[in-house]
Amino acid sequence: MKIFAISDLHLSINNPKPMDIFGPTWEGYLDKIFDDWKAKVSDDDIVLMAGDFSWAMKIEETKPDFALLAKLPGKKVIIRGNHDYWWNSISAVRKNLPENFYAIQNDAIKFGDYVICGTRLWTLPDKQFTPENEKIYKRELIRLELTLQNAKKLQSEGNHLICMLHYPPYTFKEEDNEITNMLEKYGVEKVVYGHIHAYCKQNLVLQKNGVTYYLTSCDIVGNKLIEIV
User: Fold this and answer.
1) CB pairs under 8 A, 24+ apart, for 178-182?
2) What is the pTM of this model?
3) Cα-only R_g, the chain
4) I need a labelling partner for 185 at 20 to 30 A (CA). Which of 62, 108, 143, 202 fits?
5) Which domain holds residue 90?
6) What local confidence, expressed as pLDDT, does residue 31 receive?
7) CA dist 154 to 110, 112, 198, 228, Å?
8) Which of 58, 64, 51 is nearest to 5 (CA)?
């Protein structure tokens, strides 16, 4: 079993929203992703998608987007991104998922020796942080700890822990903070995240205090799946 990751697909089959307006990297990007996916992934493998799956506004509008990826091999694990406005209650999301799709929201799932958890997070505190941002950020910290706690309940001796995030867990300075400290506290080995796009510069892979972080936004990684296990 291999585990791959990619994020920020921004699908819009029902109501087309061309992504190539954001630059040449997005021209034909889905064809490139799907070709790479078919070449790398088997039915026994797992693909982690860390948010911004679809531009849809309502959950029923996502069906063509999910149907498109349902044809691809592997088990697909998704978390919510900041543009996944269609994502309402987790029960409604899971009810509408095709076969071999799994949604995580503050909980965790286990495949073999790997426990996978995840949450959306939020922007990190800075000088422009508003009281509303502070409120959301603190709530997301609680959700991060909740998903990690649930992961530990599933984890047996020798199991490996992977955490999916949508927002980056650190700034471009890659300094320690509440989020990285919490990931280390719970023994997370690998973290995948997205949200950042080509106009932002950050290391694609970072090893920090025993944790390996992977930036997986599709436009930054050349529209190819990143093998993390």
Assistant:
1) 178/141, 179/121, 179/124, 179/141, 179/144, 180/208, 180/209, 180/211, 182/141, 182/144, 182/145, 182/148
2) 0.95
3) 17
4) 202
5) 3-227
6) 95
7) 7, 11, 36, 21
8) 51
* Tokens encoding 76: 């697909």
Average pLDDT over residues 69-98: 96
Q: Provide the CATH number for the domain around residue 158.
A: 3.60.21.10
Rounded-to-5 percentages of helix, strand, coil across the chain: 30, 20, 50
- Going by C-alpha positions, the residue among 63, 171, 46 that lies closest to residue 111 is 46
Helix (H, G, I), strand (E, B), or coil: what is residue 77? strand
For residue range 103-122, what is the model confidence (pLDDT) as tens digits?
999 999 999 999 999 999 99
Beta 46-49 vs 108-111: how paired, if at all?
unpaired
Looking at the structure of the chain, the number of domains it has is: 1
The residue type found at 150 is: N
- The two beta strands, 190-193 and 75-78, are unpaired
- Where b means 16+ CB within 10 Å and e means fewer, 114-125 reads bbbbbbbbbbbe
Read off φ and ψ for residue 206, nearest 5 degrees: -135, 130
Could you tell me how many residues make up the chain?
Answer: 229
Nearest Cα to Cα of residue 111 among 19, 2, 37, 195: 2
49 close to 162: Cβ distance less than 8 angstroms: no
Give, as one character, the DSSP assignment of residue 84.
-
